[in-house]
């Protein structure tokens, strides 16, 4: 910590932690990174994993995301940046901050040389923290700082750590005091080489052995047994690998394929628990418990994962909103090496990593032979991958997807007849999924994603064994009604237009043949759902996302759903129009959803006109996570929300609240741990009374443009660990900033918070861009008038060309300028018309940050033409056309010409070039 907090004033000051794999480098770095003093010392912090296959773009992108904490829409903008823009963006984001960036598990000096230009000097005291196995990499990065080299644990330290793991606290101390147990334990732990990872894995193995005979068996196998598979592993870790293999061999049969399946994922990958368990089920690794219903298979999968965690073979990386269940998990590099080695040895799995295959150009043809494994994982890369040939043995084909799409193509689906799992993404504007997919009769898991329109064939109805259907694209999705007939369907998710709350929901108007559906979203519903009582047939549904077509159906459909006792998560997209007939009374049935723990409401909540009742009064009391979006409430929601006894996570976003003041009362929000407040239009004052939110750990505020001060009561919330301020007024952020050794006037409110992130660069850029684009229309109108002036001038100048050579040159310049202006005006009409109206573009840009690059380019061109025109006018006084009233009529003529040119464009889509008098 002392090395990190020393205020050196030099570029790229690096502190390195060096040691062999499993010795605890990451654990130590994480402990320092999360220390209160460290978080107070630095303005911003970021952590990123490097691994052997360093991908510089992904590394820089990850750091930038952590530094800026962007919204989902802003993330999409950042991901479109090219490498030069990305490096510069990170450089600019850090150059005025005292920052700490952790590069965990960096292997090569060359990787650091590529990343270094993105990391500026920053404010005095900025640091980069390395963890690496290679001392030379550390010295190459910073010869001035001696690396911190971790030593293995001593024999006594190793035994203490083993004892803690092998003898749980709820057991008596008799085992520890037994000389026989200690003798065997010390002999085995000595072979761990002092590596904490190996000791913990061995301890977890021994914790399951209750008798001395069991310990002797482990001891015997460890020292004298033939452990198959060691030859596949790194000889540097010989004794350690024996422990890891021994732990693998000790696994019950049903756990081994679940563990080997983790080899699908790249190093340091954050693995989704939900997806992993569904893949296990699709592969047939999980069967219903004896005498139980099929619906319990996901619960069995949870048990399997917990057992792998208990054995220290899998690390919990992130918990879900309840704080108890796993959301993301990871596997240590050494354990992954074991996993990969075993998977290859047993012909369980093969990888394709296009980025590591040399001399394959921009494309890579892959043909598997019959001896190839039954599972294929394709890791991220920029090359086009074409899978060819017949593959009668292949059971699983997974495209491990990152933020960017991979070009991937299968030559013929009928060559994969035994396939059970198929996960693909395709970088195309329109994907007509081949009807040959119907040949995959054994398919249980199908997940498809593309950037454009996706059209699915009716042949999907032949896939009678499907458990999971997941479709996502950023345009329209066409799904045939045959999905209703899939008898074994358990998970059906469809996301279109990039946002689930658009009108892209799948029409739910008839019965599903499957009665074991657990997840269903996003479905468009209306009164037909009521007429056939379809919702009542899904008695096992746990997660439901619905989009209401009409506000008139809300209450009746909710009344129908009260009887869904298994429902835990509900997302409802209400009609967005404020003029709809929806009333707060329509939400009354929610009060009877006693089992619901997660609720999301999107759309306008029509309040009681007399304000005698709050629109949220009918929220179920057991809600743990609540999201309100586009609600446009004017009554303070806190008076209801703060009394929900179980509420742990609260998100108010995208104009959920339009009032002027929020009040959090003393003793309110007793369980709240995370609060996100985003996009309020009128919020000016927020009062937090002492005693409110006593368990709050994370607070995020963004795009609340009128909130100029943080609440006084924030200083009473001593549990707060992280404060994120994104695109907030500069008057607010200035009051808490520390300049030199002096904090702003409101710094006392936040000085106790370990981590404070302030990022406004993206918002500033987008606001500036929105203002710029709004001016484009006016600029084009002005340019049209200037074009007519130029045309008048050129017509008059024809007879003067003989008089003055200088005049001739100016006339030539004006003619070129007139041509350029004409091109720009044509481009504006064409682009704006194709975007369904200019005002629509600006509205979408400012609300969801869609990128109208063409308009920006036009704006830049207009400004350039105007600058050139000003210079010509200064040097050529003769270039003056009196304002004779003809300009407006000339605009009309230009419009007529443009309409003739673009006759295919609808009249309502054409942006008028006449200056509006209403503005």
Topology:
Elements: H1 2-5, E1 14-18, H2 25-33, H3 36-41, E2 44-49, H4 56-68, H5 72-79, H6 83-94, E3 99-104, H7 109-115, E4 127-132, H8 135-141, E5 148-149, H9 155-166, H10 174-177, H11 179-190, H12 196-206, H13 212-224, H14 238-250, H15 256-260, E6 271-272, H16 273-283, H17 297-310, E7 315-319, E8 326-330, H18 333-345, E9 350-352, E10 363-367, E11 375-378, E12 384-388, E13 396-399, E14 408-410, E15 421-426, E16 430-432, E17 445-450, E18 453-455, E19 468-473, E20 477-478, E21 491-495, E22 506-507, E23 519-525, H19 528-531, E24 543-548, H20 554-561, E25 569-573, E26 598-602, E27 625-629, H21 638-641, E28 649-653, E29 661-664, E30 674-678, E31 685-688, E32 698-702, E33 722-726, H22 730-736, E34 738-739, E35 742-743, E36 755-759, H23 761-797, H24 805-834, H25 838-848, H26 853-875, H27 886-901
Parallel strand pairs: 1-4, 1-5, 2-3, 3-4, 9-11, 10-12, 11-13, 12-14, 13-15, 15-17, 16-18, 17-19, 18-20, 19-21, 21-23, 22-23, 23-24, 24-25, 25-26, 26-27, 27-28, 28-30, 29-31, 30-32, 32-33, 33-36
Antiparallel strand pairs: 6-8, 7-8, 34-35
Helix pairs in contact: 4-6, 9-11, 9-12, 11-13, 12-14, 16-17, 23-24, 23-25, 23-26, 23-27, 24-26
Organism: Gossypium davidsonii (Davidson's cotton)
Protein name: NB-ARC domain-containing protein
InterPro entries: Apaf_helical (IPR042197), Disease_R_plants (IPR044974), LRR_dom_sf (IPR032675), LRR_R13L4/SHOC2-like (IPR055414), NB-ARC (IPR002182), P-loop_NTPase (IPR027417), RX-like_CC (IPR038005), Rx_N (IPR041118)
């Amino acid at each position: 910590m002392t090395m990190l907090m020393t205020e050196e004033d030099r570029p790229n000051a690096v502190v390195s932690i060096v040691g062999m794999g499993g010795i605890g480098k990451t654990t130590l770095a994480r402990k320092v990174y999360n220390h209160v003093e460290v978080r107070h010392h630095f303005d911003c912090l970021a952590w990123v994993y490097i691994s052997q296959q360093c991908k510089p773009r992904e590394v820089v992108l990850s750091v930038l995301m952590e530094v800026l904490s962007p919204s989902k829409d802003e993330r999409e903008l950042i991901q479109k940046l090219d490498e030069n823009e990305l490096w510069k963006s990170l450089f600019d984001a850090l150059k005025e901050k005292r920052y700490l960036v952790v590069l965990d598990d960096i292997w090569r000096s060359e990787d650091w040389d590529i990343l270094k230009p993105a990391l500026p000097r920053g404010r005095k005291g900025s640091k980069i923290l390395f963890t690496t196995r290679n001392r030379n990499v550390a010295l190459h990065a910073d010869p001035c700082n001696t690396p911190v080299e971790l030593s293995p644990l001593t024999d006594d330290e190793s035994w203490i750590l083993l004892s803690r793991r092998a003898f749980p606290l709820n057991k008596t101390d008799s085992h520890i005091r037994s000389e026989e147990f200690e003798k065997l334990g010390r002999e085995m732990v000595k072979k761990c080489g002092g590596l904490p990872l190996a000791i913990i894995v061995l301890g977890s193995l021994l914790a399951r052995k209750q008798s001395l005979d069991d310990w002797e068996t482990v001891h015997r196998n460890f020292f004298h047994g033939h452990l198959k598979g060691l030859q596949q592993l790194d000889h540097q870790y010989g004794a350690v690998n024996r422990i890891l293999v021994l732990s693998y061999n000790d696994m019950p049969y049903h756990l081994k394929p679940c563990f080997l399946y983790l080899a699908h994922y790249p190093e340091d990958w954050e693995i989704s628990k939900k997806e992993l368990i569904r893949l296990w089920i699709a592969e047939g690794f999980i069967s219903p418990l004896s005498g139980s219903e099929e619906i319990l298979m996901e619960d069995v999968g949870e048990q399997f994962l917990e057992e792998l965690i208990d054995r220290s073979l899998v690390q919990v990386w992130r918990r879900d909103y309840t704080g108890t269940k796993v959301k993301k998990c990871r596997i240590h590099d050494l354990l992954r090496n074991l996993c990969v080695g075993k998977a290859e040895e047993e012909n369980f799995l093969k990888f394709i990593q296009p980025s590591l295959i040399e001399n394959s150009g921009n494309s890579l043809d892959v043909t598997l032979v019959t001896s190839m494994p039954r599972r294929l994982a394709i890791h991220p890369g920029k090359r086009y991958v074409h899978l060819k040939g017949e593959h009668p043995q292949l059971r699983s084909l997974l495209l491990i997807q990152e933020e960017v799409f991979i070009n991937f193509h299968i030559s013929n689906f009928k060559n994969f007849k035994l396939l059970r799992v198929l996960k693909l993404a395709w970088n195309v504007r329109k994907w007509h999924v081949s009807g040959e997919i119907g040949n995959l009769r054994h398919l249980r898991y199908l997940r498809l994603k593309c950037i454009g329109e996706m059209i699915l064939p009716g042949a999907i109805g032949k896939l009678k064994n499907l458990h999971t259907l997941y479709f996502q694209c950023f345009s329209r999705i066409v799904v045939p009604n045959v999905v209703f007939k899939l008898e074994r369907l358990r998970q059906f998710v469809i996301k279109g237009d990039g946002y689930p709350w658009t009108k892209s929901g799948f029409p739910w108007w008839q019965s599903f043949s499957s009665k074991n559906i657990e997840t269903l979203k996003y479905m468009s519903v209306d009164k037909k759902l009521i007429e056939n009582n379809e919702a009542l047939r899904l008695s096992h549904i746990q997660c439901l996302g619905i989009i209401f077509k009409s506000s008139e159906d809300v209450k009746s459909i909710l009344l129908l759903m009260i009887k869904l006792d298994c429902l835990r998560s509900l997302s409802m997209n209400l009609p967005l129009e404020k003029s709809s007939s929806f009333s707060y009374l329509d939400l009354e049935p929610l009060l009877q959803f006693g089992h619901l723990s997660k609720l999301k409401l999107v759309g306008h909540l029509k309040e009681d006109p007399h304000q005698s009742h709050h629109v949220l009064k009918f929220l179920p009391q057991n809600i743990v996570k609540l999201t309100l979006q586009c609600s446009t409430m004017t009554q303070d929601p806190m008076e209801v929300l703060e009394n929900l006894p179980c509420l742990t996570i609260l998100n108010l976003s995208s104009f959920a609240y339009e009032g002027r003041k929020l009040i959090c009362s003393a003793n309110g929000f007793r369980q709240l741990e995370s609060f996100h407040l985003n996009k309020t239009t009128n919020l000016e004052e927020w009062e937090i009374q002492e005693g409110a939110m006593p368990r709050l750990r994370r607070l995020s505020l963004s795009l609340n443009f009128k909130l100029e001060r943080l609440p006084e009561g924030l200083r009473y919330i001593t549990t707060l660990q992280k404060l994120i301020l994104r695109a907030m007024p500069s008057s607010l952020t200035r009051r808490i900033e520390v300049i030199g050794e002096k904090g702003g006037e409101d710094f006392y409110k936040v000085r106790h918070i370990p981590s404070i992130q302030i990022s406004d660069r993206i918002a500033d850029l987008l606001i500036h861009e929105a203002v710029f684009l709004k001016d484009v229309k006016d600029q084009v109108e002005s340019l049209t008038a200037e074009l007519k002036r130029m045309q008048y001038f050129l017509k008059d100048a024809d007879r003067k060309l003989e008089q003055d050579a200088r005049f001739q040159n100016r006339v030539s310049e004006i003619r070129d300028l007139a041509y350029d202006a004409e091109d720009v005006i044509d481009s504006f009409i064409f682009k704006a018309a194709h975007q369904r109206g200019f005002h629509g573009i600006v509205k979408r840009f400012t609300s969801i940050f869609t990128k109208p690059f063409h308009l920006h380019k036009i704006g830049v061109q207009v400004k350039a033409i105007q600058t050139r025109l000003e210079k010509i006018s200064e040097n050529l006084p003769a270039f003056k056309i009196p304002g004779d009233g003809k300009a407006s009529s000339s605009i009309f003529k230009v419009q007529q010409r443009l309409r003739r040119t673009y006759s295919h464009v609808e009249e309502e889509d054409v942006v008028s070039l006449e200056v509006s008098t209403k503005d």
